[in-house]
Amino acid sequence: MTAVHEPITGRYVYIPYAGYNYRVYYEETGHGIPLVCLHTAGTDAREWRHQLTDPDITENFRVIAFDMPWHGKSIPPNGFEKQEYRLTAKFYSEFVMTFCKALELDLPVIMGSSMGGNICLHLAVNFEESVRALIAIEACDYSPGWYINWLAHPHVHGGEACATSVFGLMAPQSPADYRWETWWYYSQGGPGIFKGDLYFYSVDHDFRDRCGEISGNVPIYLMTGVYDFACTPEMTEQTGQKIRGSETIIMDGIGHFPMSENPATFKRYLMPVLTKITEKTPAGVG
């Protein structure tokens, strides 16, 4: 029997931010335009394994997916046990761009889902000169109601509670194996991490009065599945109407985790977006 190897390469890099060197794990494949993928709340970069191994994507893109600090293989900073983890827009957006700078990525495309989609709005305002395009998946200007205190209660099995609380956000027709794989990712988050991410998602991220600050100079694509009830298609469409130059794409037959719950369906919607980005990029750039 011959072993089958995937093309993914995994590495660690130290990212200096605010006086601390964060040990960050990332995976990458492909060549060309940098495409940095941001995972959802409480999980890690494994969500992007299908896109990392898709030759149609990696033909023109250097696909990079990393674990945010406190997530996956990226450990938290020293002294983490003395503080409550709460993700903020400032830390999140600045850390993403610091990661890109550390890897010397030239005008990367940022593609994020859920909290990774919402942060794209902040990147559009504060870092438009440093990005080529933004793909905001399952994103809108405000996602209230998901900062739930009982998720971190000691009487609650944190992993199972977090995983099961989001299971219904996936489309019923998504392949069962992929739905349960996504559930598994959520079951493995560190104590209080999902709750801390949801602080950004539902509290610190309130862009309702800020969409007008986005200049429209950087292409931004808003992509949302019809089965998402955390960020509904209507919420995304309303947000898109406020952002000049944006394009809203509603995806049939898919829910809140397109890249992991149903990668084949997601690919049908993603490839035209990637083609547009490629066509706007001068030959030899990437």
Keywords, separated by commas or semicolons:
eight-stranded mixed sheet, 10 helices, 286 residues, 35% helix, Rossmann fold, globular, alpha/beta, single chain
Name of the level-1 CATH class: Alpha Beta
Uncertain parts: none
What fraction of the residues are assigned to beta strands by DSSP?
15-25%
**Spatial order of the strands forming the largest sheet:** 1-2-4-3-5-6-7-8
Q: Classify the helix fraction into a percent range.
A: 25-40%
**Oligomeric state of the chains?**
single chain
Largest sheet: 8 strands, mixed
Distance between the termini: 38 Å
Instruction: Report mean pLDDT, rounded to a whole number.
Output: 93
Shape: globular
- What structural category characterises the helix and strand content? alpha/beta
**Could you state the order of secondary-structure elements as H and E?**
EEEHHEHEHEHHHEHEHH
Number of helices: 10
- Total number of strands: 8
Q: What integer value in Å does the Rg equal?
A: 18 Å
The tally of domains stands at: 1
Concise account of the structure shown:
By secondary structure, the chain is α/β, with parallel strands linked by helices. It contains ten helices and eight strands.
Overview of the molecule:
- With about 290 residues, the protein is α/β, with parallel strands linked by helices.
- The protein has a single domain, classed as Alpha/Beta hydrolase fold, catalytic domain (Rossmann fold, 3-Layer(aba) Sandwich), CATH 3.40.50.1820.
- It has helices spanning about 50, 55-60, 90-100, 115-125, 160-165, 175-185, 195-205, 235-240, 260, 265-280, and strands at about 10-15, 20-30, 35-40, 60-65, 110-115, 135, 220-225, 245-250.
- The protein has an 8-stranded mixed sheet, with helices on both faces.
- β7 (about 220-225), α8 and β8 (about 245-250) form a beta-alpha-beta unit.
- α5 (about 160-165) packs antiparallel against α6 (about 175-185).
- The model has no long low-confidence stretch (mean pLDDT about 95).
